[in-house]
Structures are given as C-alpha cells and as structure tokens.
Design a protein that fits this description.
Largest sheet: 11 strands, mixed
Helix content: 10-25%
InterPro entries: Metalloprtase-TldD/E_C (IPR045569), TldD/PmbA_sf (IPR036059)
Strand content: 35-45%
Organism: Pseudomonas taetrolens
Pfam family, one: PmbA_TldD_3rd
Number of strands: 18
Protein name: Zn-dependent protease
Distance between the termini: 69 Å
Keywords: Hydrolase, Protease
C-alpha cells in the first residue's frame, strides 16, 4: 500500500499537471488554502461541543491577453477527483475569458521565486489543555472557545513561482461571567503552550472578576488618565489598519493616516510599527504571488513604508512589496516600551484601566478621530489601586492624541493577539502589542 501524499505533495502534483495542461499564451496562478482544526466550546467551565474540521481549496486564475478570471474549488483529497475538478474549472475559465475586457491594472509577477516554510512545532495535547482549563475554571462561570491545528497556504504560477507555508497555532478566547451579568474577557494564543503563562493570564482574569462585585463607579463625561490593555489597543489598531497603511487609500486620499504620511502630523516618538512577517504565523508570500518581507510602517512616530499590492503598483507607479489583499497588515507589531506590567496601576495613579473596547468607528476619519465604547472589565483606579468597575462609557478621541501627544508610556511586555475569526476558515493574522498609558482620554457620555 502506497503512503498517502502530504498536502504539500498533493498541491505540487496539481501544479505540475496544470503546467502541462496550460496552452500558450495562457498563464495561470494557483492559490491553496487548508486547515486541520480542532474546535472546543465551553460553557460554565465545561466542554459543551467538540469537533474537527479538515478542508482544502484552490483558487485558480486563468490569464490570456490581459483578461483574467478566477474560480474557487473545494478539494476532495483524492488526486483523481481533484484533477477532474481542476479540469472542469479550467474549461469554465477558458469559456469565460473571451467575454471579459482586458484589465489595465493586471500586474503579474514573472519571477520564478521559491519559498518553503513549515512551522510544525508540536501543538499541546488536547487532553492536557482541557485539564488545565478545567482546573483554572473551578468555581467560576467560564464561557470560551478553543481552536488549534495547522493552517496551510500554497501558491504557484505558470512563471515557475512556488510557495508553501504551514503554521501550527492555538487560540483560546474566553470570558468569565459574574452573577451580576458583567464579565471579564481574555485570550491566550500562540504556537507554544506555556502552562505558567496561561495560569497567570487566567489568574489576572479571576482577580478582575472579583472587582466586578463592587458597586459601579459613575463617571461624568470629561478627560481622564487611562491605561489601554493590549486587547483594547488592538481595537484602535484594527481601525487604523482599514486603509491606514494602504497604498491605494493613500494615493486616493482616503486613508485615516493621510496626514501622518503627508508629514502634516506625527505620533509619539514611542510608537514604531512594523509589518513583521518573518516572526509571525503569516506566509512569506502574498495571494497575488509576490514575496513578502518585513516593513517599517512607522518609525518613532513618523510614517515610512506603506503596503503596496500589485494593482496599486500598476495604477500609481509603485513597487509591489507583497501586501496582502486589502493592503492591510497581517502581522502588525508595535515596539515595546519600558513600563513594567507590574507597575501599570502605580504609574496610572488615578484614572481608568480599560481592558477592552468595542463598536469602534470613525467620528472624523481625515483626522483619525475614533469613537467607541468601553467593554467588559473597565475599572476606576485611585492612587494605584482598583476601586470599582465603571459602567459602559463612550470615548471620542484622535489617534494623534492617544498615540501622539498624550501617550505617556508603553509596556515592556507585549501580548500576541491572533485573529479569532473562523469565517470560511481559521486565519494566521496577528497583532503583537504592548499596553498604552494615556495622559488624557476623552469620554463623551
């Protein structure tokens, strides 16, 4: 009995078949996405649902005389069946192309590059994870979601390019609920399960849960010192990533960071932002077929590089740097500061400790002004001690204030926050962020 082919070998076999089948002057690109994931849902600290998902798909693009069309195929994992599906998809695209106009912004990579990266460090045994979660959740109402397993990406083209990427990761996203319906939200994610680190993260959540027993502290609208935990800062950064670093958005003057890139505004010298592909779970190539490298987006408060995809490069005369679809960061890393996590409350003194934010939107996009709500565990702190939880409040402030003139310090410890999205399939996008101490945050109601 022959040994079953690995996912990479199956993909390579389909690529070789396709290269033999294509008829000049036709060209193709072929993308591959797959996951083998384990999902476990918790309620009241107990496993309520467990399952596995194994899926793989191809995205075939056929190009001829400047015209191109795509089709997505779900793979069966059987070589003969998958070749037949690819044959039918190819014929469908050949019939479609004559009906389409030429694309003036089509820019294919003609380089025959090769990339192979497999991050296959063993993931934690499920039984061990369940036992640690069970012990950590004793006596509290825990609701959560655990996902783990390998995610694979592949890319190939008729020009000879070939890329393969596999990343093993886990993500445990949970909330601890109090009987008064308030909750503390937390997460722990990565590629290497550290029992002590998980225990510390859970202990912090349990300590915050105890504070939710106290009567709510009422705040009037106004300006307050505040500490944004990494999860809260992630919400701010996620808004900025929607076009903030995009070459297309910057060229069309629709970026929320337009003033930063124009040199008309700046952030604090404490702020440096990188697209750090080399130390992340993200592949070293884009879905458009361009190698990716680390980029310095913001250095000490000043804008540097932007994310450039092939269409922006063709339209605006720029150089492609492997930006993913949408030209948004997928491996954003903010440089750490010098504030020790243990000293956050002392340094805050009197003000707000904000664990999470939600419902963010722009109140003035050209000014990078955001509005949103505090979420879950937000506390009033006096003289370096948590005194009481604070009811949900709305903030409205500019990024040029929060991460600019009013930024006092960043923590030396950073938290890896992986995308918890499972829509279509799990993702490898990540944010590596410190916490931020803000001298003045504006609450409006």
């Amino acid at each position: 009995m022959s040994t079953p082919l690995s996912q990479a070998e199956q993909f390579d076999a389909l690529v070789q078949w396709l290269r033999q089948t294509i008829k000049a002057p036709e060209q193709f690109t072929l993308g591959y996405d797959a996951e083998a994931s384990e999902f476990i849902r918790f309620n009241r600290g107990q496993v309520r649902q467990a399952g596995q998902v194994q899926q793989a798909s191809l995205n075939l693009k056929l190009i001829n005389d400047g015209r191109h069309a795509d089709v997505r195929i779900t793979l069966a994992g059987e070589p003969a069946a998958d070749r037949q599906r690819l044959t039918e998809a190819l014929q469908q695209l050949r019939e479609t192309l004559p009906l389409l106009p030429a694309d003036p912004y089509l820019l294919l990579n003609a380089e025959p590059w090769h990339s192979h990266q497999v991050q296959d460090q063993p993931l934690p045994e499920t039984g061990r994870v369940l036992e640690e979660i069970r012990r950590a959740a004793q006596g509290v109402d825990l609701v959560g979601f655990y996902a783990s397993g390998p995610i694979s990406y592949g890319y190939a083209s008729s020009a000879g390019a070939f890329g393969w990427h596999q990343a093993n990761s886990f993500n445990f996203d949970w909330s601890l609920f109090h009987s008064n319906s308030q909750a503390v939200k937390a997460s722990y994610a990565g590629a290497d399960w550290d029992s002590q680190r998980f225990a510390r993260r859970m202990q912090l959540a349990r300590e915050q849960l105890e504070f939710l027993e106290r009567p709510l502290h009422t705040l009037a609208p106004g300006e307050y010192r505040a500490y944004l935990a990494p999860a809260a800062l992630e919400e701010v950064m996620s808004m900025l990533c929607w076009g903030g670093f995009s070459a297309q958005a910057l060229a069309s003057k629709s970026s929320p960071l337009q003033k930063l890139y124009a040199g008309d505004a700046h952030l604090s010298p404490l702020v440096s932002l990188d697209e750090q592909v080399s130390q992340s779970l993200s592949p070293a190539f884009s879905g458009e077929g361009y190698p990716r490298r680390d980029l310095s987006l913001v250095k000490e408060g000043r804008a540097l590089q932007q994310l450039v995809g092939s269409r922006s490069a063709a339209e605006y005369g720029l150089e492609v740097n492997g930006a993913p679809w949408g030209e948004a960061p997928s491996a954003l890393a903010m440089a750490p500061g010098t504030l020790a996590q243990a000293d956050v409350l002392k340094q805050l003194g009197t003000g707000l400790y904000i664990s999470n934010l939600w419902y963010l939107n722009y109140s003035d996009q050209p000014a990078a002004r955001l509005t949103g709500m505090t979420r879950f565990a937000t506390f009033w702190v006096e003289n370096g001690e948590i005194k009481a939880p604070v009811n949900t409040m709305r903030f409205d402030d500019s990024v040029y204030s929060l991460l600019g003139s009013q930024l006092e310090a960043l923590t030396s410890e950073r938290e890896l926050l992986l995308s918890a999205s499972t829509y279509d399939q799990r993702q490898t996008a990540s944010n590596l962020l410190p916490g931020a101490l803000i001298k003045k945050l504006t609450l409006t109601l």
